[in-house]
Amino acid sequence: MIQWVTPEGKLTKQGLKHWSKFSNDEKREWLRWMILARQFDRRAILLQRQGRIGTYAPLEGQEAAQIGSSMALHPEDWVFPSYREHGVALKVGMPISQVFLYWMGRVEGCKPPEGVRLMPPTVPIATQIPQAVGAAWASKLRKETFVSVAYFGDGATSEGDFHEGLNFAGVFKLPVIFFCQNNGYAISVPFNRQSASETIAERAKAYQIPGVLVDGNDVFAVRGVMEEAIARARKGDGPTLIEAVTYRKGSHTTADDATRYRPSDEVKEWIEERDPVERWRACLLHEGLISLEEVESWTHHCDEQVDLGIKEAESSTPALATHLFEYVYHEVSRKLMRQKTECETREIPWLN
Amino acid sequence: MAELTMVQAICDALQVALEEMPEVLLLGEDIGKNGGVFRATDGLWEQFGDERVIDTPLAEAGIIGSSIGLAVNGFKPVAEVQFLTFIYPAFEQIISHIARLHTRTQGAFPNSIVIRAPYGGGIRAPELHSDSTETFFVHTPGLKVVVPSTPSDAKGLLLAAIKQPDPVIFLEPMKLYRAFKEEVPTGWYEIPLGSARLVQTGTDVTIIAWGAMVPVAMQGASECEKSGISCEVIDLRTLDPVDEETIIQSVTKTGRVVIVQEAPRTLGLGSELMAMIQEQAFYSLEAPMVRVTSYDVPVPMYALEDDFRPTAEKVAQAVYKVVQEGGR
Ligand SMILES: Cc1ncc(C[n+]2csc(CCOP(=O)(O)OP(=O)(O)O)c2C)c(N)n1
């Protein structure tokens, strides 16, 4: 497994070798974005408890995988996320308020700002994988250089769509990155019940795709392997499967209780000894790239941004029932027009 | 007798089935150690072990496809699809195989499988968890389709489904999982498939509903009673085979029909019921039949869920209409 920073925040030999590949400014940015993702996530859980948003899928513990990978993307690259990639969404340009809107049950939260190539969260597991392949295909057919990334979990690798996506990508040699966050569990099902193979990365071989196993809580290594995969893709060398080994610190969603199925010493170890944000913070402190005061002021600033996002989301125009009939087709059919009238007037028109 | 919610009654039925039928196997995602995301299999893995209560990999085609192979070998798979909206990877297995294996092999191999799935809206679930797509299965010959609306019905119907030689799609309205408790008989107890339940008798209008729409229909009916309109309410319980006799008897008596359906309007079960009534009881009708349904739009995210779904108010309004129209 590729690791450039140890859980204690020390650079490994490989880490030292790659250290100068990225600017100090960028390295600081990784931490700032990870803090934003974490502060967003913690607030979202609180909002759910207060009934201000619906059931929510927390990401805490997966910040390094999400930020490390998305920091490597260019604006023209496509992102096909699952439902847990709030960190990725924020990084590629989704406003905080939009992400909140989504979890407030508002369809408007699916729509990214103009120019942001981010698909809406994917709820049916693994279905985004072949879609990302298609986006990469478009790039190849048009002879462009953008790449496409599919984000998914370990559970998704059991679905047929995972196989079909990787197979297409291998056959047509497409510029797509399959980025799997293996957080050890698909809801309650541990990875050893998901697959008899030791790793997900090794499955790439069967499709003649490089498979990379990386410490997903090491933002530096994730950023590094993603850079390489993207470079290969842009050059026309085809897809890569990256398995980022990580852990979701909390429950699957706010409706789930992870204490029912995860051993407490395992959880404790991941929380106390392998936290991705702590790891990078320790590394940057050790390397003299940040001060504690800076981290504190960033955290404060992130909280303010999150506050602002909540305010925006909560003060947005309320959803109207008639919105139901918009955007079903490109024009409103006669049938839907009639149903819209029925909805507005609460009358059953054909009986009047 | 025990006071149970619907989800507890379902768990109870599964427990009884596992106990009394050694060929019963439960398969699904998160049904083992976690006891199901709704706790419909709570405690069963502990009691019956990993070979009878089986956490599978995350793959619906795998769950349902392998259920077929188990079934032809005499096992009785009771598969859980975590939410009905995630059944699509298994569609091929259900439509092309489970539904027609009996026809294709002329009975040579058993295809006795139960597929359970929580479904429907009204609980502010995340996006893509709330569709009511019972029509797909009712439309497919070879499948029986069951939807309970009370805890004791849930238990009795599920056990009857498990005893069925035919494959059964057993749809569980999430909205009713914990809506109320009632006395549920202990031990083995069946309610035959294909028999509707007369929830309330009345003389002016027949209201037909199933699943989560039964309490909505009842609420609408009691609203109308205030204006002196007497409603007969039928809970279908089994959507296929549907209890035509009970429906026709009621319609012959009341002459007026309101159908309450959670699914969007077009080609929902309500359409088929109207066609059937028209064919069998046209001359008893005193007014055009009315459907109260969701609109023909994608099931919205939860902010608009209440506007999308049928409500008691919409039911009452429909009842007033058919009564006025018919000149009571
Ligand atoms: C096709 C499908 N089946 C089942 C579900 C229900 N479900 C939602 S999340 C989940 C587990 C997903 O695990 P994984 O892919 O590892 O991603 P993670 O949640 O760990 O990020 C399941 C079974 C679903 N959303 N889609």
Write up what this structure looks like:
The complex is a heterodimer of chains A (352) and B (328). In chain A, the strands form two sheets. A five-stranded parallel sheet of chain A has the order 1-2-3-7-6, with helices on both faces. A two-stranded antiparallel sheet of chain A has the order 4-5. The N and C termini of chain A lie far apart (71 Å). With 352 residues, chain A is of the alpha/beta class. In chain A, helix 3 (63-70) packs parallel to helix 9 and helix 5 packs across helix 12 (292-314). Chain A folds into two domains: 13-318, Thiamin diphosphate (ThDP)-binding fold, Pyr/PP domains (Rossmann fold); 320-352, no CATH class. Chain A is built from 13 helices and seven strands. In chain B, 36% of the residues lie in helices and 20% in strands. Chain B starts with a strand and ends with a helix. With 328 residues, chain B is of the alpha/beta class. Classes of the chains: A alpha/beta (352), B alpha/beta (328). The complex binds thiamine diphosphate. Thiamine diphosphate sits between chains A (82, 84, 123-125, 152-156, 183, 185-187, 252) and B (29, 58, 60, 82, 86, 89). Chain A: Residues 32-316 form the Dehydrogenase E1 component domain.
Mean pLDDT of chain A: 97
CATH superfamily of the largest domain in chain A: Thiamin diphosphate (ThDP)-binding fold, Pyr/PP domains
CATH level 4 superfamily of the largest domain in chain B? Thiamin diphosphate (ThDP)-binding fold, Pyr/PP domains
* Distance separating the two termini of chain A: 71 Å
Lateral strand order in the biggest sheet of chain B = 3-2-4-5-7-6-12
Q: Estimate percent helicity of chain A.
A: 40-55%
Q: What is the count of helical runs of chain A?
A: 13
How is the quaternary structure best described?
heterodimer
CATH class category label of the largest domain in chain B: Alpha Beta
Secondary-structure element sequence of chain B? EHEHEHEHHEHEHEEEEHEEHEHEHH
List low-confidence stretches of chain B: none
Number of strands of chain B: 14
Cα shape of chain B: globular
